[in-house]
What we know:
mainly beta, 9 strands
Amino acid sequence: MTNEIETILRMQKDENLVFKLIIDRNEFQIKNLEIKNESTHVTEPTKRGGVYFSDITVYKINVVINDLKITKYLTKAMLGPSTEFQDIIIQPINKKNKKNEHIKIIPHLTSSIQNSNKIILNLTIQNIIKN
């Protein structure tokens, strides 16, 4: 997964990518996206809540979306007592040719912050799929 993230970060730095978020078959343009590798509170890889695995470090994504219509889809996607989560996909798109890159980032939503004109989503990357 690290190689794919490094590729995404390199392309993003070169300003060749934009991103869209797909949830419940709805697409939302991402205004800003930041990926960071952070330490977790666990000392060894563990299954969290019987649902997903957490390592000692994780890749986190912070995204800003200006379309507040996304809020109606977020309650089903938020981590919590439920073990069934609405799938979220973040897809990079090449700015030059407007084609999808052959990578899908699969995150879990951990929190969100909303104001009158945008929503900030905090996510943890669970998988990256190359098509």
